[in-house]
């Protein structure tokens, strides 16, 4: 029920409450390729919304034994983020005794340490964006001027919470589960350090 409530609140925020005018300056800069005009923190959060789905793709497909297939929701998260994943956790994440839906070759790849290291490298590269220097004041200004930034910020926090939940839910006996609280990279570290733990 909590996931459905958060889903409804997220939709309500995106449609009715998110600040920003008719012209979105951040979206305009992205479409024009003028990334230099975007504060590095805004850019890092935007890029993170492409990294979170990779993490969820890994977590969900490695544990796709639930009531509903996870892969459609994991793929949709690349486009609509938490909006798709909240529905999965609200209705489709019911335990069953069925075998893993994910093909063996794909499950092996997603659990392969190389893939987990690739995710870590992506996270590191995105973090290096912040070395250009960033401004919390500039982010705040972008938050209130751009509906994209305001919605993606809320989406980022929801995805963070969902990633922590998914790690604790699917790997209740994993060691160092608290690492999952590190945004994006945390669940990957838990998988890396507990490769044979389920």
Automatic annotation (TrEMBL):
Specify the domain of life of the species encoding this protein. Answer: Bacteria
> Has UniProt tagged this entry with the keyword Transmembrane?
yes
Could you identify this protein by its name?
A: DUF2834 domain-containing protein
Q: Where are the transmembrane segments?
A: 41-61, 73-91, 111-131, 143-166, 178-194
Keywords, ordered alphabetically? Membrane, Transmembrane, Transmembrane helix
Which species is the source of this protein? Answer: Planococcus kocurii
